[in-house]
DNA sequence: GTGAAAGCGCTAACAG
DNA sequence: CTGTTAGCGCTTTCAC
């Protein structure tokens, strides 16, 4: 077992070498599993290393090798469950590759984000993962020359920067189609008026599904929403005051769906008997909602994994098979939707 | 604006110095805002730095200064909302101090955790934050000589290692007391049989409150539970089959409370009219539960902030005012509890 | 198989 | 005020 040492007494390779009676390069070779070390020598060195609990200074290594073994991940915020699996996925892949993850939270401020990018560009890391980057941030990144991968990149249609996104359009389409297949014709959507690319795609998918089914697209049924619980709540209240309210609500995301539930509960409208509700994202709490929410699963773990994998390739100078990856969503059927025929209020 | 450069062409201070027609130390001084640089010189250097978009290599600096400006945070897992605010709090404080946060997830494996600690001990970071460390991990940490702070340390009563915890006992006591004050006498607790220190304290607080009110402590009302939704569900089912079921359930944590709700809903027992329920942690979804859950708020953000603040002091060689900090909890009253008098089933 | 020498990019000490 | 000198801890030739 390693001996105990004083707090600030950190051994260097030179000291290990001296104790083991060898030279510094030999210790280095042992540490890096080079083959050109005689077994007895290796043994002796290893023993000293273990005995003294030596761990090599990463800074020296980084300086020498020009790589830090660190990757930066810039997130808009940490207190949102949404980002967790992305982080987890990235961490998994990076961990397997022996790369460590440096976390930067920008608290939704572009300025902070750019500062983050600049801080990162000091080569304290070998590459960068950015979730929901602003347009400006992307420019900074491209200028930096560091490898990077964008997650949920907003805009940047022109840019050829490597990115991973979710097929929001498809998700919106599938959710709506699912409702249509169950006989719903008046389907509301909450979450209009956001600039985020994902949101725009989502509502486009909704409209396309209606259109494909030859259903009218009623502007009254498209509610504003910034993807918060409150927005879902308000929109639902408004929706139910319509002369001809919807029979189903596509909530845009799960948080809004929670608001929809709350409004519906207050109004005494029963889900799914009197109103079908479908969410988007598949956040963890949707399972324990009452009734459990049918929703579109956004593969966030894979988002993180894929982005990290791409970044690793970039860092190692390998080419990317695809620069702009789009990950598919799928519907998770639970108990918040019901065929229209059975709806109490309808017809 | 910075000119564009080839991807792998990173300027060094030497190059900047040459371009600006000064020596390397001068550039260093400018970068570090030293006062002993003539204004014109400074101006010229700064201009070159901006023009070429130079950012200094952190590894060189780290090597020279013996500090990396990085702090490691080891978490049992990333896919649990519980840990988010802790991380966020730590990130906030660290960010303010210009220190960056390196994330390590151990996936609940002690082995991984120790490996994590060892990896970290390579001085790639200046200090370590460990959430829910195993006993063994603490030993490794103490041996490493690196500054560290424990968050939610399990066990380690003997250890004097710096740590931050939540007053679980107090929380358990307050929750139970709250129920007692509302006339409840048969109060169940879910979450027995865990080794985690926090859990042991929590149930002790529960028992103490009962005891203080001269209420009997019925073993039947103390259910096993590992703090998952499923455990809350099962325990509740069992509880309601008792000849004399409880009138209130202290769910141990919010996740179990969610299970309690589910079981109760299945059985047609209405919260809070027929059963009062109280949680612990104050996770974000408790607000949108139906009815919103009354729970004990565990100050997780402050947990992270406090731990990070302590670690920073340690890193800078300053003494800690307190080595073992305990953060207070408080009750968040919502709508899942009701005075016993009004209970339909009771008496 | 081993070690001496060189140098990664940076900052601190000091001489001028 | 400025530049010279030295060296952080490590890895990489390249002699021996």
UniProtKB/TrEMBL annotation, chains A, B:
> Which PROSITE patterns does the record associate with it?
HTH_LACI_2
Q: Which residues form the HTH lacI-type domain?
A: 11-65
Q: Which domain of life is it from?
A: Bacteria
* SUPFAM superfamilies linked: lambda repressor-like DNA-binding domains, Periplasmic binding protein-like I
Keyword list (alphabetical) reads: DNA-binding, Transcription, Transcription regulation
Pfam families annotated for this entry?
A: LacI, Peripla_BP_3
Quote the InterPro entries the UniProt record gives: HTH_LacI, LacI/GalR-like_sensor, Lambda_DNA-bd_dom_sf, Peripla_BP_I
Q: Which PANTHER family match?
A: HTH-TYPE TRANSCRIPTIONAL REGULATOR GALS, LACI-RELATED TRANSCRIPTIONAL REPRESSOR
Task: Write down what this protein is called.
Answer: Transcriptional regulator, LacI family
From which organism does this entry originate?
Answer: Ktedonobacter racemifer DSM 44963
């Amino acid at each position: 077992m390693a001996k105990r040492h004083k707090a600030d007494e950190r051994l260097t390779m030179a000291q290990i070498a001296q104790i083991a009676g060898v030279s510094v390069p030999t210790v280095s070779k042992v540490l890096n599993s080079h083959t050109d070390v005689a077994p007895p020598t290796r043994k002796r060195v290893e023993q000293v290393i273990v005995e003294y609990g030596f761990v090599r200074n990463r800074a020296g290594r980084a300086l020498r090798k020009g790589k830090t073994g660190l990757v930066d991940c810039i997130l808009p915020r940490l207190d949102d469950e949404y980002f967790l699996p992305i982080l987890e996925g990235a961490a998994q892949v990076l961990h397997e590759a022996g790369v460590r993850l440096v976390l930067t939270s920008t608290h939704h401020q572009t300025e902070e984000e750019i500062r983050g990018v600049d801080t990162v560009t000091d080569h304290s890391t070998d590459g960068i993962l950015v979730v929901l980057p602003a347009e400006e941030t992307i420019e900074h990144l491209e200028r930096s020359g560091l490898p990077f991968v964008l997650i949920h990149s907003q805009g940047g249609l022109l840019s050829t920067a490597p990115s991973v996104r979710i097929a929001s359009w498809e998700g919106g389409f599938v959710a709506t189609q699912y409702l249509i297949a169950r006989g719903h014709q008046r389907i509301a959507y909450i979450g209009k008026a956001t600039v985020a690319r994902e949101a725009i795609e989502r509502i486009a998918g909704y409209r396309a599904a209606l259109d494909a089914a030859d259903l009218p697209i009623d502007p009254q049924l498209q509610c504003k929403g910034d993807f918060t619980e409150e927005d879902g709540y308000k929109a639902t209240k408004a929706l139910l005051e319509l002369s001809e309210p919807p029979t189903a609500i596509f909530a845009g995301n799960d948080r809004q769906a929670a608001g929809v539930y709350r409004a519906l509960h207050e109004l005494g409208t029963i889900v799914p008997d009197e109103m079908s509700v479908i969410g988007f994202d598949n956040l963890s709490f949707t399972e324990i909602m009452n009734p459990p929410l049918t929703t579109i699963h956004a593969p966030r773990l894979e988002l993180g994994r894929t982005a990290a994998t791409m970044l690793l390739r970039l860092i190692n100078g390998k080419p990317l098979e695809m620069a702009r990856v789009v990950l598919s969503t799928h519907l998770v059927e639970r108990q918040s939707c019901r065929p229209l025929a059975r709806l109490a209020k309808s017809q």
